[in-house]
Amino acid sequence: MKATQPLHRSATTTPNVIATIMGDRKRTWGEVRNRVARLAGALQKMGVGKGDRVGILALNSDRYLEFYFAVWWTGGAVVPMNLRWSPAENAYSLNDSNAKILFTDRAFTPAIPAIQAEAKDLETLVFLDDGDVPEGMLAYEDLIASNEPVADASGSGDDMAGIFYTGGTTGFPKGVVLPHRAIWFNGMACSKLFHIEAGDKYLHIAPMFHLADGAGSLATSMVGATHVFEPMFTPAGAIAACENYKPTHALMVPTMIGMVLADPSFSVDKLSSIKTLIYGASPMPEGLLIQTLKTLPSIGLVQGYGQTELAPIASVMPAAYHVLEGDKSGKLRSAGLPAYGVTIRIADEDGNDVPRGEVGEIVVSGPGTMTEYWNRPEETAAVLKDGEVYTGDGAYMDEDGFVFIVDRLKDMIITGGENVFSAEVENTLSNHPAVAGAVVIGIPSEKWGEAVHAIVIKKEGAEVTDQALMDFCKEHIANYKIPRSVEFRTEPFPLSGAGKIMKKDLREPYWKGHGRGVA
Amino acid sequence: MKATQPLHRSATTTPNVIATIMGDRKRTWGEVRNRVARLAGALQKMGVGKGDRVGILALNSDRYLEFYFAVWWTGGAVVPMNLRWSPAENAYSLNDSNAKILFTDRAFTPAIPAIQAEAKDLETLVFLDDGDVPEGMLAYEDLIASNEPVADASGSGDDMAGIFYTGGTTGFPKGVVLPHRAIWFNGMACSKLFHIEAGDKYLHIAPMFHLADGAGSLATSMVGATHVFEPMFTPAGAIAACENYKPTHALMVPTMIGMVLADPSFSVDKLSSIKTLIYGASPMPEGLLIQTLKTLPSIGLVQGYGQTELAPIASVMPAAYHVLEGDKSGKLRSAGLPAYGVTIRIADEDGNDVPRGEVGEIVVSGPGTMTEYWNRPEETAAVLKDGEVYTGDGAYMDEDGFVFIVDRLKDMIITGGENVFSAEVENTLSNHPAVAGAVVIGIPSEKWGEAVHAIVIKKEGAEVTDQALMDFCKEHIANYKIPRSVEFRTEPFPLSGAGKIMKKDLREPYWKGHGRGVA
Q: For residues B333 and B321, is the Cβ–Cβ distance under 8 A?
């Protein structure tokens, strides 16, 4: 099981099929393999060999995909860096992984000096963008042109294929070590679960450093379909990319989908090439999900749930269950069924199975599991036990095997001895017509230990009072779950690089000087 | 990657979904897992542990499936035995694999004493059939009833999951050692390639000892679909099983399909539940393939090509290309595209890639490859090189990546310096209206080295002369490929346990006293 296997299959089987399209630039699978083998030759000359880490900090591009394969081809490991990180965090990940080489592009050139100042092992910078090459950097295309193809020296099975940093933004990130089997497996499983076949076109619109995009990317390579690239997400850019490239598949985080639907340039027609729209990386508010279903009835919506520690897929909510009526309805708020090849169980605090329907922690096993957190044996031991990954997500499984996530365990609010799942309250609030976004957290309460607190962004032009929102909740959820306080906010919620709302940042001001950790 | 993973996923996700149906007996995935864990407990008490081999010689049944999982659950390795073997061959495989335990049923009880007499390590017999238990055998259901479930002690990755004997019938068989990853991978890949999903029903009608059935079986378990079982193939029994069980998927070897279509009880209606009919394990004569297409236009035909050394899948010919006209036509004689996860290249005698379109040997890599031939390092080294399996099959790949098998390399006839692919001549003969079956072999010729010789079975009531067949060939293929002699035969061709025509048996009388090996 090699992460380079999909490239070999596609280049050997259909060398003349288009592999990558970026703007006017098109390359076949045969060309991509040849370029990857040359770039690997260049990396080997720089000293990259088995297990050596190579960083990348860049927007989406066809070369980002080649980078992944070329590093694997040398036997090395990729270190894809989060676009939202500060230079200090970027330097931290390079130092932590001892990366000597960093690939970057024009968007990140201004940040490079600050990173270089702190990244102690960094020796070589490769510029993978078009146009003038900044001083002190090597030109990507020169490396390809001036090297001969080398033989694939890729690792396989449990050999390290990459270190994917997770967390961060505040506090330093953990490096998730993913082996070749995990990368390969996600391509294999997601090709089935996302219904990607030869002849399809996958749009990279979510950032390529993140494994949410990775799942679709690997699946696309696995079947020899075509990759198309948009450098970074903007609502209008995403819509234009759909018009221009006519992709059959795309993956977006829920926030992106909301922005696309709300964009002035949006029309249903412009997205008509899409057969399957995959969403994931953060929960989709039910209101937005229903809006998407109703607005785009001919598109198959598929939810992927997972985490970096699983490379990433754990469960998939099939398109057939994205319905509001009929015998497949009632699953809409579910994260779907365990992905084929993956076993999910719901465990109590001692790791034993809870009875069906009760809430516990999602525990996942299968070929996609990480091998460790890099250089963090204690944190590894807390999460990876007997080959199972303890996800930290609270959920129950229904009689049909569907997983319903109730909350991150650490986001669960314990108020007066009752468990409140913030996600449930957020879903309720999101169904109010005046609410554009809602985050629910626990804040310190002398009386209840924690009190339910809502932070709400109103829709443009909409008016609503805190009392009106509490009354609305009262109609839908139990009394103890109703927010005891509501705060209105005008600026967007703080997001991680993957588009997740950073609840710990929202909790922090309330908990200063109190005992609860905010992570 | 454990071979038991599909059972865990299905039993954990949907414990109440029906896993197996045999006659009136139905069991859920939860029940099957519990029974497997108990049977594994019984096996452990008999001393079965990591890597220990356990034999089975039995017709298809729900218990055959449980046997596979229970042996894996102990960490042991299955040794499924060929139903057509002689007692001497059966004893050989037990001796070669040092199996101490043999599971068997009523059909094979009469053969047991002769096997016991020669199988030096055999200590324990388990009777997995219903009704009275023969003296000296343990009762399968007693083992389950009298043991508690044990924890899964399965191997994974490269650990041995089974020894699958191949060859045989004349000469002694070779034991193909397949690891857990190979078994697991075939379930994963075939679930996509055969379009098997939860809710589907797979009919075991080909013998379960053979990996042709294994591919569909593993895929069925992988997605938590339902297995239905017919003890052994008869044309009327297969048709009745389709009527009774309403399977959505079935795998048959081409000979079986021909017999089903020709059976007096056949009607299109009776097979109407089948969405996908998978065929493989031997080449399908083009005449029969076209007849099947025309007779069953609403069934998706999917060809699987592979071999035991690949556990077994190498390539798959999708249903969409089983058409006689339109832009997807012209591939009908192909073995399809490399399976997802599998890389196929066509190599010359030195192992180098041949130019596209030229004939060479099919060389396969991927997670499905065997680890070795048991106790046969020289034969292993000849077939498994740098992780690639050299299949011994001659083929070319077209521009679209479709593999066209021309012959087993050893069945290729070299006549007057020209290569003749026996399969091509057989296909031509099979299109003649009087021909029920045709085998083409090389026989000794002083003038040409080898001469093309055809052995033909006429359709009932049909008349045709050898000259008429030669004339027919002349219309379709080059002169040097035309049989120089035709022999008519009334008895069926000798078949291997997997339903393959044993060409070496047909060659043997001609080559006695000549130099060419007949294998």
A: no
- Determine the distance from the C-alpha atom of residue B202 to the mean position of all C-alpha atoms in its chain, rounded to a whole number: 16
- Is B515 a residue whose pLDDT tops 70? no
Residue B463, SS3 per DSSP: coil
* Mean pLDDT across A432-460: 91
> Judged by CB atoms within 8 Å, which residues 455-514 of B form the interface with A?
none
Nearest residue on chain A to B199, judged by CA atoms? A400
- CATH top class, domain A5-336+371-382: alpha beta
> DSSP assignment, residue A321?
G
Q: A42-47: long-range contacts at Cβ-Cβ below 8 A with a sequence spacing of 24 or more?
A: A42/A143, A42/A144, A42/A146, A42/A147, A43/A70, A43/A71, A43/A74, A43/A76, A43/A101, A44/A74, A44/A150, A44/A153, A45/A147, A46/A100, A46/A101, A46/A124, A47/A100
Q: In the numeric block, which tokens belong to residue B196?
A: 């098997």
CB of A341 less than 8 A from some CB of B: yes
Q: Measure the CA–CA gap between B294 and A193, rounded to whole angstroms.
A: 32
Q: Does this complex have an ipTM over 0.85? A: no
Q: Dump strand ranges (E) for B287-331.
A: 300-306, 313-317
Residue B251: helix, strand or coil by DSSP?
A: strand
Architecture per CATH, B412-511: 2-Layer Sandwich (3.30)
Q: How far apart are CA A74 and CA A162, in angstroms?
A: 12
Contact B342/A9, CB-based, under 8 Å? yes
User: H/E element holding A468?
Assistant: helix A466-476
How many Å apart are CA A242 and CA A267, to the nearest integer?
11
The band of B8, judged by pLDDT with boundaries at 50, 70 and 90, is very high
Characterize the bridge pairing of strands B388-397 and B360-365. Answer: antiparallel
Q: Which CATH architecture has domain B5-395?
A: 3-Layer(aba) Sandwich (3.40)
B-facing residues of A in 167-196 (CB < 8 A) are 181, 184, 188-189, 191-192
Two tokens at B97?
């694999």
Identify which of B8, B341, B400 has the shortest CB distance to residue A5.
B341
User: Phi first, then psi: what are they for B456, rounded to 5°?
Assistant: -125, 135
| A9 touching chain B per CB within 8 A | yes
Of B9, B158, B337, the CB nearest to A342: B9
- The answer to whether the pTM exceeds 0.95 is no
Highest mean pLDDT among B155-169, B378-392, B501-515: B378-392
> Positive or negative, the Cα torsion across A395, A399, A400, A401?
positive
Query: Mean pLDDT across the stretch A229-239?
Result: 97
Tell me the percentage of chain A whose pLDDT exceeds 70: 97
Mean pLDDT (whole number) for A403-410: 85
Give tens-digit pLDDT for B237-283: 999 999 999 999 999 998 899 999 999 999 999 999 999 999 987 77
DSSP state letter for A202 = E
Q: Domain spans of chain B?
A: 5-395, 412-511
* Confidence tier at A96 by pLDDT (50, 70, 90): very high
pLDDT digits (tens, 9 = 90+) for A274-333: 999 999 877 788 889 999 999 999 999 999 999 999 999 999 999 999 999 999 999 998
Percent of chain B, pLDDT > 90?
81
Distances (CA, A) of B42 to A269, B78, B98, B284: 62, 15, 19, 43
